[in-house]
């Protein structure tokens, strides 16, 4: 457990006793990463913010329920994930995202779209929901495999396999986009 | 610590996201020189990480007002919880009162009936409806021998006066609603004679020495 985790835990303990100042500090410490997770999940700033508000309301109400089995941030992202999934189901967007194939054509002919980074970004957007999510958690949230396993409630080995499988899928998508090099 | 190639390969994404311990980091760095395949992996994941860094730039910043929104919601929630708490308290209180009264309905019914009877009696007394026995009255003040007496309703006033003059008695109280008079004679020794005279009169319905 690093210093940040200890700070989060200490703050959450105070939040569970109704300390609004600690709640504010915890919010400032974690909300950006939770927002990024929600934005990647929901792809809409307004909806991501609404779900973020709901998430922190749950954190405030449920701080006493935190058992300490995971990092506080992982726990908060877990709450955000559940609420975000509900939102997706409510808006019937879940299928659209899971089978995300509608790569936008509007930027296909600009310079960025033809750059290597631009193409990889487009390829990431074409990944299935679960493969994109696992890469989001590794590279956006910089979570360990153990934390991802706890968050998604899947075995540790499944997390590792999924990360490498997501990379292979990316390579396959890039191939269909005309990128055929040894790397990716 | 000796990690296999597969184990080291697994660590590559965490190496790039800086989630490894110092020892593990060192092991991966050493392995990169040893296994060219690992270098290949690291280049591929580096490109993904780079793309993620670019994607991060595209994410709009969250609003500055988010915390204020949460704070307002918490205040609202607190008020709501207070209402729920009060409602619960009122419900419990109502239940308590119901539990207190319902099983004892009969006892309470009797108590209420008794209270009504007492109330009626008190009101009757206030309206000067008094109850007497024929052998006594309550407010005898004068001295001498007293006698309670009831005359026939049909008897005339003159007959009554004559009789009282005959025995030397005077009315000191009455009549009550029941027709009861209290009379007095001065001479103690004559009480038996007076009583006999009074008892013999046909229009005297009741006569008794005042106790």
Q: What class, by secondary structure content of chain A?
A: mainly alpha
Q: Spans of chain B of 5+ residues with little confidence (pLDDT < 50)?
A: none
The value of Rg of chain B in angstroms is 56 Å
What quaternary form is this? heterodimer
CATH architecture descriptor name of the largest domain in chain A? Orthogonal Bundle
Please name the CATH topology of the largest domain in chain A.
Rna Polymerase Sigma Factor, Chain: A
Calculate the terminal CA-CA distance of chain B, rounded to whole Å: 123 Å
Helical stretch tally of chain B = 8
Low-confidence stretches of chain A: 99-111
Mean pLDDT of chain B comes to 84
Shape of chain A: elongated
Can you describe this structure?
The complex is a heterodimer of chains A (184) and B (211). Chain A has helices at 3-16, 20-42, 45-62, 72-90, 94-98, 111-114, 116-126, 129-140, 145-152, 156-176. Chain A has ten helices and no strands. Chain A has 184 residues and is mostly helical. Chain A folds into two domains: 1-98, RNA polymerase sigma factor, region 2, helix turn helix motif (Rna Polymerase Sigma Factor, Chain: A); 102-184, Arc Repressor Mutant, subunit A. With 211 residues, chain B is an alpha+beta fold. Chain B folds into three domains: 5-58; 63-129; 145-209, Peptidase S8 propeptide/proteinase inhibitor I9 (Alpha-Beta Plaits, 2-Layer Sandwich). Chain B is built from eight helices and four strands, in the order ααααααβαββαβ. In chain B, strands 2-3-1-4 form a four-stranded antiparallel β-sheet, covered by helices on one side. In chain B, α3 (22-34) packs across α4. Chain A binds chain B through residues 20, 24, 27-28, 31-32, 35-36, 39-40, 45, 48-49, 52-53, 56-57, 60-61, 116-118, 120-121, 124, 135-136, 138-140, 142-145, 160, 163, 167, 170-171, 182-184, and chain B through 10, 13-14, 16-19, 40, 43-45, 47-52, 54-56, 59-60, 62-63, 66-67, 69-71, 73-74, 77.
